[in-house]
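Input C-alpha cells:
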C-alpha cells in the first residue's frame, strides 16, 4: 500500500506564493510601477467582510496597492455601476473585484458585465470565461486556479487521470472542470462534473483519481465514496454548531476529513487548504493585470 493521508498545505504554498509576489512587486517598483487592486464590498455580510479583510491584508504584506470601497446595503444598482466605471477608468487600480454575494435587489450579473475585462481579476466576466472555455485562459477564477497550483507544487499531474468535480458553479466547479480538461500542463484529465441532478453520485466519485468537492454541504463526501489512494481537494467552508468552540461553531469542509484521509493519498484540510490559495492567486492575477496594462500602454 502506498502512503495515505498526506496533507496538502495551502497555508505553506500560499505563503511561498505571497513571497514570490512580494519579490515581483519590488522588482516592478524599481521601474516605477505599482500594481493596484480595488475591492468593492456592498452591505454587511459577515463572511464577505472576513474575506475582504484577508485580501486587504495580503495586499499590504506584499506591497500591492489596495483600495477597499465599502458601500451600504441600500446602495442602488446605478450607484454601484458608477463606482465600477470609476475604477475601470482609474490608472491606479489594475484589478477590480466586486465581492459576492451582493445584497438582495442588486443585479450581480450586470455588475460583472460592467467590469473592464482587462481588470477582471476574479475571472468572472464572460469575456474571460470565454477565453478559458476556448482554451486560451487569461484571467481565471482564483479558487480553481489555486487548486491547479497546489497540484502542480505537490507534483500531482492530472494527465490521463479521472477527475470528478462536485459542483458546477461559475466560481469554482465549471472553471475547475475546464482547467483540468485543458490540453496543457496541469490539465489533460478525463473530467466528470456532478451536480444536484446527478444520479448515484458515489458510483462516480469512487472512480475518481482526483476528487474536487465544491458543493457547500458539510461532510458530504464520506470515506465510502472515495477510491483508494485518490487525491481529495476540499473547497467547502461550512459552519457547523460546536458548543465547545469559542464562537459556538467551527468550520468544516465538504469532505469528512478524518475518515477520508485514511483512504486518500493526498487531502486538503479545512481550514488551511484551498482557502489561503484563493487569496494568493488573487495577488497573482493582480500582477497579471498590471503586466497586461503596462505592456499595452
Ligand atoms: N465570494 C466568495 N468568493 C469570492 C471570490 O473569489 N470573489 C468574489 N468577488 N466574491 C467571492
Amino acid at each position: 500500500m502506498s502512503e495515505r493521508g498526506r496533507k496538502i498545505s495551502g497555508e505553506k504554498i500560499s505563503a511561498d506564493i505571497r513571497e514570490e509576489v512580494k519579490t515581483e512587486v519590488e522588482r516592478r517598483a524599481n521601474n516605477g510601477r505599482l500594481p493596484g487592486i480595488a475591492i468593492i464590498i456592498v452591505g454587511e455580510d459577515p463572511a464577505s467582510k472576513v474575506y475582504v479583510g484577508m485580501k486587504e491584508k495580503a495586499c499590504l504584506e506584499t506591497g500591492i496597492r489596495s483600495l477597499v470601497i465599502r458601500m451600504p446595503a441600500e446602495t442602488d444598482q446605478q450607484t454601484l455601476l458608477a463606482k465600477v466605471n470609476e475604477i475601470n477608468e482609474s490608472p491606479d487600480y489594475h484589478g477590480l473585484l466586486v465581492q459576492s454575494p451582493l445584497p438582495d435587489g442588486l443585479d450581480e450579473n450586470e455588475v460583472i458585465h460592467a467590469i473592464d475585462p482587462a481588470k477582471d481579476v476574479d475571472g468572472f466576466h464572460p469575456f474571460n470565461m470565454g477565453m478559458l472555455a476556448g482554451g486560451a485562459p487569461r484571467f481565471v477564477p482564483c479558487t480553481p486556479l489555486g487548486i491547479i497550483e497546489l497540484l502542480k507544487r505537490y507534483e500531482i499531474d492530472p494527465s490521463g487521470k479521472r477527475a470528478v468535480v462536485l459542483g458546477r458553479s461559475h466560481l469554482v466547479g465549471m472553471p475547475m472542470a475546464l482547467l483540468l480538461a485543458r490540453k496543457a500542463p496541469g490539465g489533460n484529465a478525463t473530467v466528470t462534473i456532478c451536480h444536484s441532478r446527478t444520479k448515484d453520485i458515489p458510483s462516480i466519485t469512487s472512480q475518481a483519481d482526483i476528487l474536487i468537492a465544491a458543493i457547500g454541504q458539510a461532510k458530504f463526501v464520506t470515506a465510502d465514496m472515495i477510491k483508494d489512494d485518490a487525491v481529495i481537494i476540499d473547497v467547502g467552508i461550512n459552519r457547523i454548531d460546536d458548543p465547545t468552540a469559542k464562537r459556538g461553531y467551527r468550520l468544516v469542509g465538504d469532505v469528512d476529513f478524518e475518515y477520508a484521509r485514511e483512504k486518500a493519498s493526498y487531502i486538503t484540510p479545512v481550514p488551511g487548504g484551498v482557502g489561503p490559495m484563493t487569496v494568493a492567486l488573487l495577488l497573482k492575477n493582480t500582477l497579471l493585470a498590471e503586466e497586461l496594462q503596462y505592456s499595452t500602454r
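The chain has two domains: 31-117, 141-275. The chain has a mean pLDDT of 97.
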